[in-house]
What we know:
- By secondary structure, the protein is mainly beta.
- Helix content is 11%, strand content 56%.
Amino acid sequence: MKKTLWVLLSLLLASSLVAQKDISRHRICVNLGGAASFANIEYQFQIHSNERHNVFVAAGMGMNLLNFTFPIGLNYGFGYDNQLILGLYFVPRFNSALSSTYGDADNYLFSPKFGYRKILNGKKNSHLLQVFFSPAFDIESGTMYSGAGLGFGLYL
């Protein structure tokens, strides 16, 4: 698990070397709902962007009553101001300190993301609103958790 996180972190850092510099590539999103969480905060970094297509990696932290989630994903956006969002997330889920004494992940979830994003005030120093459907699939048991969310993001 630790090796996987180090590889993903290395990919995030290496992707900044190939990124274009004409617009902000960094954004923070706060979502209500999502993959097995009531709320999460997510950092997104754009690794490719042209007129209508953009690809970005995302890493975040979410929580519900008993669990913490750490979604790591790859997203594709199609459109300029109105975007279709397609994404794939790997979500390790940990029990809270109150219900578990171990530091290992309770289980791992796989979560596709389908949604709509509206970018407001252009590309530079702008913000976004998004609505998405993000079911989560438990890899070990095969259980599906339905999830949908509403988010607000800010370009840094």
